[in-house]
Amino acid sequence: MVKTFFHRDINKKREDFLSWTEYFMATAFLAAKRSKDPCSQVGACIVNEDKKIVGVGYNGMPTGCSDDQFPWSKTAESELDTKYFYVCHAEMNAIVNRNSADVKNCTIYVALFPCNECAKIIIQSGIREVVYMSDKHAEKAATEAAKRMFDAAGIKYWQYIPQNSKIVIDFTEINWSKQPTDVHLHENIIKEMENL
Ligand SMILES: Nc1ccn([C@H]2C[C@H](O)[C@@H](COP(=O)(O)O)O2)c(=O)n1
Ligand SMILES: [Zn+2]
């Protein structure tokens, strides 16, 4: 058995807390977990100038359009039987579902670079900055069009390159004992190491 452990001095401030950018991008990725799209789960998180989250969204069917009845296919004999006419993109949902009066001067954190349609909504809503994780559709005309519009409208956009590729949420962590001299030897970590 591989034994691993970590020390935590509970008298000192934690050093391994999430940065703001990690926190907001992780919020976007967590929202994406709600998506029913079998191929692409995209999340978006809108943050105001006070670093408050004012909107979260993920790609899904419009309200009232059952995600058990509308199609999730990428291809079909008829375009009407693909998802593309129906699905609301994460960015659009985050903007329309905002919990503030407006999203002026906000930043949107999004897993995938916005398409041209979302770029228009982002610009019109007053969002000033786009932070994205992936630009995997960079070669598509929709992405190029979005970039042209962002450039013309003076919207700042930049790719977030994470320091860690994973953030683990462990629901059991809240029950770990934290004593002043504690060295945790946590079962899950041991199991993970054994599986390596
Ligand atoms: N910035 C984006 C890009 C895409 N989406 C959504 C729209 C679809 O549900 C899915 C793309 O489907 P695919 O062609 O990859 O099968 O992702 C979004 O919400 N935001
Ligand atoms: Zn879009």
UniProtKB/TrEMBL annotation:
One of its GO terms (molecular function) is zinc ion binding. It catalyses: dCMP + H2O + H(+) = dUMP + NH4(+). Its cofactor is Zn(2+). Keywords: Hydrolase, Metal-binding, Nucleotide biosynthesis, Zinc. Its EC number is 3.5.4.12. InterPro entries: APOBEC/CMP_deaminase_Zn-bd, CMP_dCMP_dom, Cytidine_deaminase-like, dCMP_deaminase-rel, Deoxycytidylate_deaminase_dom. One of its GO terms (cellular component) is cytoplasm. It is an enzyme of class 3 (hydrolase). Residues 19-144 form the CMP/dCMP-type deaminase domain. GO terms for biological process: nucleotide biosynthetic process. Gene3D superfamilies: Cytidine Deaminase, domain 2. It holds the Pfam family dCMP_cyt_deam_1. Supplies the nucleotide substrate for thymidylate synthetase. Belongs to the cytidine and deoxycytidylate deaminase family. This is Probable deoxycytidylate deaminase.
